[in-house]
């Protein structure tokens, strides 16, 4: 049984006979997309973990792309009717859009087991454990026999619009050069399955021999990394023309570790 943002009003905090619960099927997976408290935030979805595995994309409360202005949202790619519904309940309705995208991307929507969304964002729950990460949506039941804990909370990020899946990488850059400068460092990944856009790894003071780490959510599963593009820039014109390079760049894929 897959629960697509099961309802919060009149259901949260009720006995298991009344609401969806993991006792309802051999395997119950839940996608929480609108679990902010009903009052004052008007969340339509239930927030506690109630399945065998519970996915909290983007933290489970506010979905990217749902904060757009009403006009652009109502006149959406999916037409006026769909746009109007999205305006009223955008976060709530994201659950079925993620689910339908998950059918097309069997390797997408990896949920990382973690105690909280904040810990996930800071990289504490990266990479996937040895048994792997379950896929949110249609293929979640592939993980059915790997569940060790009584309750599994899983976190991931998604895109703002279709196509929604993102793939998480840890990128570590060690700089080389002679003097420190102020600026930023960008990295793009190239691989056997495609390339990513540029992601900012760090900004501020850039010091040679220092190592900088960022967790990026790429819009493509690059497969085997074949090339990494490194770009740095300083924030203002510097008459001494400082030079910086990358001594090493390490890329770790969350899925395959």
Q: How would you describe this protein?
A:
With 257 residues, the protein is of the alpha/beta class. It folds into two domains: 1-165, Rossmann fold; 167-253, Sandwich (Lipoxygenase-1). The chain is 15% helix and 30% strand. It has four helices and twelve strands; from the N terminus they run ββαβααβαββββββββ. It has helices at residues 38-41, 70-74, 80-104, 117-121, and strands at 2-4, 29-31, 53-57, 112-113, 152-156, 167-177, 181-191, 194-195, 199-206, 211-218, 225-234, 244-253. One of its GO terms (biological process) is lipid catabolic process. Pathway: Glycerolipid metabolism; triacylglycerol degradation; Glycolipid metabolism. It is found in: Cell projection, Neuron projection; Secreted; Zymogen granule membrane.
Q: Nutshell version of this structure?
A:
The protein is α/β, with parallel strands linked by helices and 257 residues long. The protein is built from four helices and twelve strands, in the order ββαβααβαββββββββ.
């Amino acid at each position: 049984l897959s629960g697509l943002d099961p309802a919060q009003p009149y259901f949260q905090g009720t006995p298991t006979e009344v609401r969806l619960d993991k006792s309802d099927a051999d395997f119950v997976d839940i996608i929480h997309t609108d679990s902010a408290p009903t009052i004052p935030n008007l969340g339509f979805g239930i927030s506690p973990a109630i399945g065998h595995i519970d996915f909290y994309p983007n933290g489970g409360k506010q979905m990217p792309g749902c904060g757009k202005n009403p006009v652009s949202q109502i006149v959406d790619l999916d037409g006026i009717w769909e746009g109007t519904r999205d305006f009223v309940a955008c976060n709530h309705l994201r659950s079925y859009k993620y689910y339908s995208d998950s059918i097309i991307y069997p390797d997408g929507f990896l949920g990382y087991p973690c105690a909280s969304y904040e810990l996930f964002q800071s990289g504490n729950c990266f990479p996937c454990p040895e048994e792997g990460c379950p896929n949110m949506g249609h293929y979640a039941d592939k993980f059915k026999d790997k569940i060790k804990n009584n309750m599994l909370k899983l976190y991931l990020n998604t895109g703002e619009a279709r196509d929604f899946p993102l793939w998480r990488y840890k990128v570590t850059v060690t700089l080389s050069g002679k003097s420190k400068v102020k600026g930023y460092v960008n990295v793009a990944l190239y691989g056997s399955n495609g390339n990513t856009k540029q992601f900012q790894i760090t900004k501020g003071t850039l010091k040679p021999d220092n190592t900088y780490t960022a967790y990026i959510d790429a819009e493509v599963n690059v497969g085997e990394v074949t090339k990494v593009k490194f770009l740095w820039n300083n924030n203002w014109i510097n008459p001494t023309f400082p030079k910086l390079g990358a001594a090493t760049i390490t890329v770790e894929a969350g899925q395959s570790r």
